[in-house]
Amino acid sequence: MAEERENPRTRRVRRLILDTAVEVLLECGAHDVTASVVAERADVARTTIYRHWPDQLSLLLATVMTLTDSEHISALEGPLAESVPLELERLRMRLVTRDVRSVFGALASYAVQHEAFEDAQRLFVRQLAQPLVLTLEAARARGELSSEVDCEFEATQLAAPILHQHLVLHEEIADSLIAEVSRRWFLNT
Description:
Blueprint (H helix, E strand, L loop, with lengths): L7 H21 L6 H8 L3 H7 L3 H13 L11 H18 L2 H14 L2 H26 L9 H18 L6 H14 L1
Helix pairs in contact: 1-2, 1-4, 2-3, 4-7, 5-7, 5-8, 5-9, 6-7, 7-8, 8-9
């Protein structure tokens, strides 16, 4: 159902369910993002959840999308030399203002045990880097990057050291790391 045609009550119920699912994900882990757990906590019928998300994976994927949505992601429109470090700073802020580390860990743990969670983990990481993709695509459209540039690949190259520092090493993301990642990327682009 298209969101613009969705009636306001349905939109509110979907929002309640997804907000509750995010709480469950952050508090209990990916495995507990089920229709039963979310329905009980949100005080809605399981059939209401199944009407929108027919299985646990689809509910989990929608939850991950909600968690990583950066409130209507938009590309930075300034010069690329300024936009890349600013977008990396925005990534750092998204990482530290949400409990991203525990969600990533839970998804990684479940992905090893259950193939269905691999998609959720990939989506989670892709969503974290999506604003960088949009910024690079905007720069490519302005002619600042060659039309040959694979913006998704390049965004991954930019985001990877930041994500590794935070999600794998559990270390603070220093300003110097953001500056060095930007500097090296521009040298190689």
